[in-house]
Specification:
Blueprint (H helix, E strand, L loop, with lengths): L2 H34 L2 H26 L4 H15 L18 H21 L1 H12 L7 H24 L2 H23 L21 H29 L7 H14 L5 H23 L5 H25 L7 H26 L5 H12 L7 H8 L2 H24 L9 H17 L3 H25 L4 E4 L2 E7 L3 E6 L2 E7 L3 H4 L11 H7 L1 H5 L4 E5 L15 E6 L2 H9 L5 H5 L4 E4 L2 H5 L7 E6 L14 H10 E10 L8 H11 L2 E7 L12 E7 L2 H10 L4 E2 L25
Parallel strand pairs: 5-6, 5-8, 6-7, 8-9
Antiparallel strand pairs: 1-2, 2-3, 3-4, 9-11, 10-11, 10-12
Length: about 725
């Protein structure tokens, strides 16, 4: 092949392979939702599977370097051919228990379903760069890694913006499978450019000195921190700042894009961002650890900007420590090890060890210590480097001032949800000291540690030391807050229940979204009229157990809850007494609600209430045509379905309206806004009531004439297990 076309061919092949690699990640997680449930849990477990397979692919690419160039080409084409036996891509058919744990079943299910395909594609980037260096020894192969990560970024962003809204899962499977065949053909063309001859190692001139253990450890650490920080940022912004749908895509996308800048041939952008990264860390790091719930979108933007800056800086450090091209695959293998370890730390170890997102400040501190640093101006450099004794005195001075500031902030903490005057002063002083400390790793590390403690770390530790206040599970972080008049359960930034304190009557009073004037409250009050004294009630989502206080003697109640931690908080710890006072022996079915309901008999329930949102995120698999068909089977012919669609970021009414029209349901909605004389701790809510029997809805209207017909959106396609998108539902003005 002409040398003129060799570089474009390799760039195109690497771009296409990386595009497929990151297009498949959200696509397969989307396929798994109806069978495993728990959107965030599925995604976190899937990410670990992808990182493990990526590590395997990089190790395989490194091993191939022992063979002759032509043998490498033939071997890899054989691997691609064997993996093609798993086409068209998709999940294997298998029946899972409703209590299946995503941490166990997702790796198993994904491994047997897409493991070979993902493994074969994941080896492309390092392997093709190695091949390029063999066929084009006068050119820099590392620049192709920038193209690889740009393709990864494009594939990741293309899925929620174009692929998912534009086609159903069947079409997506065919699209990806066709892309795989195309990539295999492109790889065959690249293999044809490889030189003939013996193994690469046979040429002593081409072999550079092997890296030391210390250098390999540097590679692993510099890859570990941004990988872990990417997942920690996702957890932070969806737990402590804002639970906005699609937000998980952005941290991963920015992480991938940082490689494109850090490994680009043009070094100007990477060098500029590396120089400003310590300043960004000083400005944003402490504030983000403190939490910005009052201005959530600004907090999310700051967190994403900081992730991008730090990832570029750390990956630039990796680029500067890169070996010669003949050691390229070992370099990428070490990077992959670091990336996998970062994922294990943030997604597996941290939720087990910490009760809050402590991994975030830990990784910020490590980033500040590891990133390349440059003194901002010449006089500052001379201040630190001119005299060793003076530098030591400066370091001690920085430590003393930072310690004094932290002590002052601890002495005058100010409000929990705001920044105290003392913190404002400390921020200015720490910023000034930090600007002088940039360039001295030890001094900058001391400043960052003080900043992280003063602006939120001490508050997080204080809450953690209070018994029973905060709990972390696989599905999220739960905080129980209270005072003399009420106690509240929050999942991230979303309230999942508030109980009034004092007399037994107060403690049995339904509050928040479930007050008697709400849609679900009125449906519960109408139960005796609709279904008599022995009504059968199902509730998806336990929360603090508020709805249990609508139960009456003779009724049969059961709750469907995916998280055992929620059950423990609502029933066993004594922090909330809704369940113990109102329904002492509740029927609680653990596991994903859709899988659990599928095991119920036909007509098993008279009323089913859907209230299963995780923070403010949407469990799509509970809102599809197939899910509503399941609810229709489980409900009695005159049964009533209540769907809670209050949401800060999405207008979910079109989804329920489309499902109602498609499934032959009649539907009405009730928007409840509390007034000054309403139940204490009442919250604005929006509930939709659906039934196959119009008379059931007429009964509801006798309790409140405010029930209104549900509005359908022209052209809106009902969600199905094969197709759903939230883009048309985003509330822009929020």
């Amino acid at each position: 092949m002409s040398a003129r076309f060799a570089r474009p061919l390799f760039v195109l092949t690497i771009l296409a392979g990386s595009f497929l690699l990151f297009l498949v990640q959200p696509m397969v997680a989307r396929m798994a939702l109806p069978r495993l449930g728990g959107a965030s849990a599925v995604w976190n477990s899937a990410m670990l599977v992808y990182q493990a397979l990526l590590l395997g692919g990089y190790a395989y690419a490194h091993w191939l370097g022992r063979l002759s160039p032509r043998a490498q080409g033939m071997t890899h084409l054989g691997v691609l051919l064997v993996a093609a036996l798993w086409l068209p891509i998709g999940l294997k058919a298998m029946q899972l228990s409703p209590t299946a744990q995503p941490a166990i079943w997702v790796p198993y299910l994904l491994g047997i379903s897409i493991g070979p395909l993902f493994f074969a594609i994941s080896a492309q980037a390092p392997l093709l760069q190695r091949w390029f260096s063999l066929s084009r020894k006068d050119e820099n192969p590392y620049a192709l890694y920038a193209a690889s990560n740009f393709g990864s970024f494009a594939g990741l962003i293309a899925y929620p913006l174009f692929v998912e809204p534009g086609m159903a899962l069947y079409g997506q499977r065919i699209l990806w499978s066709s892309g795989y065949i195309l990539v295999a053909l492109l790889v065959a063309l690249c293999a044809a450019t490889l030189p003939r001859g013996g193994a690469v190692a046979a040429d002593p001139v081409a072999v550079s000195p092997p890296p030391t253990r210390g250098r390999i450890a540097q590679w692993v650490l510099l890859a570990f921190v941004p990988s872990g920080l990417m997942l920690a940022t996702s957890t932070l912004i969806t737990t402590d700042i804002v639970a906005m749908p699609l937000l998980w895509v952005l941290p991963l996308g920015l992480y991938l894009l940082s490689f494109t800048i850090a490994f680009a041939t043009d070094r100007m952008t990477a060098d500029i961002q590396t120089r400003i990264a310590p300043i960004g860390l000083l400005l944003f790091g402490g504030l983000l650890v403190g939490g910005l719930s009052a201005i959530p979108l600004l907090g999310a933007i700051m967190a994403l900007a900081l992730l991008f800056l730090l990832s570029v800086a750390l990956h630039t450090g990796l680029y500067r420590l890169r070996p010669e091209p003949d050691r390229l695959t070992g370099f990428y293998l070490a990077m992959s090890v670091g990336g996998a370890l970062g994922g294990v730390f943030a997604a597996l170890i941290a939720p087990l060890v910490f009760d809050w997102t402590y991994e975030y400040p830990i990784l910020l501190l490590l980033a500040g210590i590891l990133m390349p640093q440059h003194y901002l101006i010449g006089p500052v450099r001379r201040l630190w480097e001119g005299n060793q004794q003076r530098g030591r005195i400066l370091l001690y001075g920085v430590a003393i001032v930072v310690l004094a500031l932290v002590a002052a902030v601890l002495a005058f903490p100010g409000p929990v949800d705001g920044i105290s005057p003392m913190q404002q002063i400390a921020l200015i002083v720490i910023l000034g000291i930090g600007l002088i400390a940039i360039g001295s790793r030890r001094a900058f590390g001391i400043v960052m540690l003080g900043s992280l403690i003063a602006f939120g770390g001490y508050h997080a530790v204080r809450i953690s030391l209070e018994p029973g206040t905060r709990t972390r599970s696989y599905f999220g972080i739960y905080t129980v807050r209270g005072n003399a008049t009420q106690r509240q359960l929050a999942h991230g930034t979303t309230v999942h229940g508030t109980q009034l304190r004092g007399s037994p009557d107060k403690e049995r009073t339904p509050t928040t979204y479930y007050v008697p004037g709400s849609g679900v409250g009125q449906a519960m009050l109408a139960l005796p009229t609709l279904y008599g004294a022995r009504a059968r009630v199902g509730v998806v989502g336990l929360g603090a157990g508020t709805l249990a206080c609508y139960a009456r003697p003779g009724q049969e109640w059961r709750f469907y809850e995916i998280d055992p931690t929620v059950v423990r908080i609502a029933r066993d710890t004594g922090q909330f007494s809704f369940v113990s006072r109102c329904l002492p022996n509740p029927g609680i079915v653990l596991g994903d609600a859709r899988l659990s309901l599928a095991r119920e008999g036909g007509g098993a329930l008279d009323l089913l209430a859907l209230d299963a949102f995780s923070s403010d995120s949407v469990p799509m698999h509970l809102m599809t045509r197939e899910a509503f068909a399941l609810y229709g089977r489980v409900l009695a012919p005159r049964g009533l379905l209540l769907a809670h669609i209050s949401n800060r970021f999405l207008d979910l009414e079109p989804v329920v309206a489309a499902a109602a029209t498609d499934g032959g349901w009649h539907a009405v909605k009730l928007t409840y806004t509390p007034g000054p004389n309403d139940t204490p701790a009442a919250t604005k809510s929006l509930w939709i009531a659906l039934s196959r029997d119009r008379q059931a809805l007429r009964v509801l209207k006798t309790y409140d004439a405010s029930w209104q017909p549900v509005k359908t959106r022209p052209g809106f396609t009902p969600w199905t297990d094969d197709y759903s998108t939230i883009l048309p539902l985003l509330k822009i003005r929020r």
